[in-house]
Write a structure and sequence with these properties.
This protein is mainly β. The chain is 1% helix and 51% strand. It has a five-stranded antiparallel β-sheet with strand order 1-11-10-9-8. A five-stranded mixed β-sheet has the order 2-7-6-5-4, with no helix packed on it. The N terminus and C terminus are likely disordered. The chain has three domains: 205 residues, Lipocalin; 155 residues, Methylamine Dehydrogenase, Chain H (7 Propeller); 292 residues, Methylamine Dehydrogenase, Chain H, CATH 2.130.10.10. β28 and β29 form a beta hairpin. This is Guanine nucleotide-binding protein subunit beta-like protein. InterPro entries: WD40/YVTN_repeat-like_dom_sf, WD40_repeat_CS, WD40_repeat_dom_sf, WD40_rpt, WD_repeat_EMAP. Keywords: Repeat, WD repeat.
Length: 692
Amino acid sequence: MSARPVGASARQDMFSARSQTTTRREEQKSDRPDSRNQNETGGEGGSNFEGIGSSDDMLELEHVIGYTGHYWETLQAHPVDPTVYVKSMGSVVAICDTSDPHNQQFLRAHDMEISAMSISPSGNMIASGQVGTVHQPGYHAPVIVWDYATKKDLFVLTGHTKQVRLLEFSPDERFLAGTGDDCLLYIWDMQTGEVVFGKKFDEPVILFEWASIRENGRRASYEIILCSPGGGPQDDVRHCELAYDPVRAQWTLHAQNVNMPSGGLSRTYFSAMLSPDNEYMLCGTSVGDMLVFNLKNSVYRASVPVCSSGLVSIEVNAETGDVFCGGGDGTLKKLQGRDMRWELHGETMLDSKIVSLSIMAGNTEMLAATAKGTQYRVLLDDLSATIISTSHTEHITCTSFGSRFDVFATGDKKGNIKVWDLSDYATIMEVNEKKTGGVTCLAWINSTAIVAGFEDSFVRCFDATSGKKLWEIPSAHKGKITCVSVHSDSRLAFLVTGGLDGGVRVWALKNRELMIQFVEHQKSVTGITVDVKKPNLIHSVSSDCTFLTFDLIKEKRVVSHMVREGAFLCCSQRLDSEQEVITADGNGRLLFWDCDYATPVQMVQDPARSKCNAVKVSPSGRYVATCGEDHLVKVFDLVDGGQLASVGHGHSEYVLGLEWSGDEKQIVSVGEDACVCIWNFYGADVGVGAVE
């Protein structure tokens, strides 16, 4: 991420010297190809994604499902537009619409997961900060300020390292404050991007709230409340004033400690909000109580027990004064009161820790997000909650379609399996197999059941509607299951599994008895496919650079291929030509193998030479889709000699898996960003009839 210093602060110290900004207003950016996907926007910081999107109209990003809940307050309602909200999706800022799930816009520039976010009071600016990058030395964690109207970046603000913790716009939008795990506090001028104040604390600033603004001649002064753990419990909360010093020609921060009880009150603070009249500050703590501070007198007033497992989120209704508290135990409570007197006026329970609360414009509903990745709309009156969306919260490792075109399944590294409906992106079924390791692979039995391989070496089958476990195969391999495939017709029904132990095992689908096993690979089996014409043939590839074909009737290996370098990572099979098997490797090569030839009959090279994590031939047989470590989904035209037909960028981390819908009109991809990308594919009509 490029940056250059502009207008250094008058305070010539380490803070102004280290913090830099890049602004669109001061730099001319080089032209770059426009993405055909109009939902994707980004600024200069997104140079890693330069010139990508769909290379033509064949592949279009329809929708992205994702929200991890790893960081607090990363889902916020727009303060002006009553249906718009903003959330983080990995390293992408997503602008969504509660009235239309198809309406999404993406702001790309970060290269690590977003850890902090803020929207200005007018809604004209969005600020986002990230975890320190591992792609460049120094673990820099830039802050990017976006123009909501144009969806372009205004400033790229550098200076923080490790992780940005908090971002807060001042009430008049003149300043943006940012704190980080590097114990630094920066305040930037939003007219110029210049650092006006910087300070290093002994510990990270864990709370920061702008309070009132006082007009003092030419320049206003700003009341600020912050918390940075110091030498003892008495000096955690500080009442500050940010004012301009004309003598020193710089902004200064004057602080005084808030008076605490004489016996001491040690707390770890999670959240804070001001009362509508700015007279009180309300703080959520790790013990689950809400502390009340009188700002006029800078004194502690009360401790109000609210929940268990910490009071993580607080939101205040500016019109009614109602206080909404989101707890670590999943409780959402509505409190009314003032000073030392508070009463409970409503309560509901969500599915897990509430990490974000934000009242929507219109003042009738509130958005809530939980640590399980679930997003809710909550009525302010009675706290009745409706699910907007559910999400995975960890790396999604695999995806699969059954016989239905509008239903697919996904699995993640925490052992969760979800079944989705493409018509409204809702979750039909969810399974959480605890203490099993992650889900490594998925396959459907028609459209009624899902077979999943797990890291604990078990194969489990679940009902696709109820989630009930139908059966399991314990210790199917030595080590984790790496791939699974199902074949079922009127004559033959079996399950094939591959494992970390290099074995390929075939199980009777009716009773799960082991029919036969082949132990010829020297390393992990990375891909298995049942032959499209002769289901008695099983093709497998391995990280030992071998591609083998086994005959279930002859009960032996019948074909063997090997390369000297480039471990095979996945495989698929053509439906046309000679039904060649396609293998993919870590160098981005697609090799086409005919059983009658010892060497590949064709090779297609990924232009980026990126490691390929999945390869799938389309249902018509004309196209092959791949995904990998360059964050892209690519479609190649097999009829046109393997030419690259389309490129789509939706993910912000490695793409781990993809699958075609049965009608070839959509592709679903999943990745390490815990996002599910749904692509519309417009080459289906061309592909029909390609296979004779």
